[in-house]
């Protein structure tokens, strides 16, 4: 049982930490945090750069294959239609159909471009445009 008596007197309280030391620790922590954030951004940028490079390369291969496939389809359609309507009219029909497909694809791309443009807009209020 304790009677409140300490044999060596009152316990020694540690001296107060100087304000300069506290501020120095805060600055060091903030600097370390900022350096870690910069390192993270650099790593993310390197990963994005790598991904964009390979995406572009494979996208080019896919686009080239699509062009060749469309050419083959167009030539085949011309050859099949030429037996029934003649080569000139068959060519005009295939060109007209391809132009319609291109116009439809361009219209859809324009709609989706508006979505991308809206995503990067600074103001998100519906009545305000750039």
What this model shows, in words?
By secondary structure, this protein is an all-alpha fold. Helix content is 77%, strand content 0%. It has 2 helices and no strands. It has helices at residues 19-85, 87-119. α1 (19-85) runs antiparallel to α2 (87-119). The model has no long low-confidence stretch (mean pLDDT 84).
Calculate the mean pLDDT score and round it: 84
Distance between the termini: 79 Å
By DSSP, the count of extended strands is: 0
Helix/strand/pairing category: mainly alpha
The SSE string, one letter per element, is HH
Gross morphology: rod-shaped
Total helices: the number is 2
Short description:
77% of the residues lie in helices and 0% in strands.
Layout of helices and strands:
Layout: H1 19-85, H2 87-119
Task: Name some characteristics of this structure.
mainly alpha; 130 residues
């Amino acid at each position: 049982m304790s009677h409140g008596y300490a044999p060596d007197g009152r316990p020694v309280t540690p001296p107060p930490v100087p304000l300069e030391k506290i501020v120095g620790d805060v600055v060091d922590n903030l600097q370390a945090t900022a350096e870690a954030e910069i390192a993270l951004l650099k790593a993310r940028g390197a990963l994005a750069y790598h991904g964009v490079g390979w995406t572009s390369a494979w996208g080019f291969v896919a686009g080239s294959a699509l062009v060749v496939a469309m050419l083959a389809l167009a030539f085949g359609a011309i050859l099949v239609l030429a037996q029934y309507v003649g080569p000139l009219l068959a060519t005009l029909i295939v060109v007209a159909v391809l132009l319609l497909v291109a116009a439809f694809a361009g219209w859809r791309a324009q709609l989706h471009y508006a979505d991308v443009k809206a995503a990067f807009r600074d103001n998100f209020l519906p009545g305000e445009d750039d």
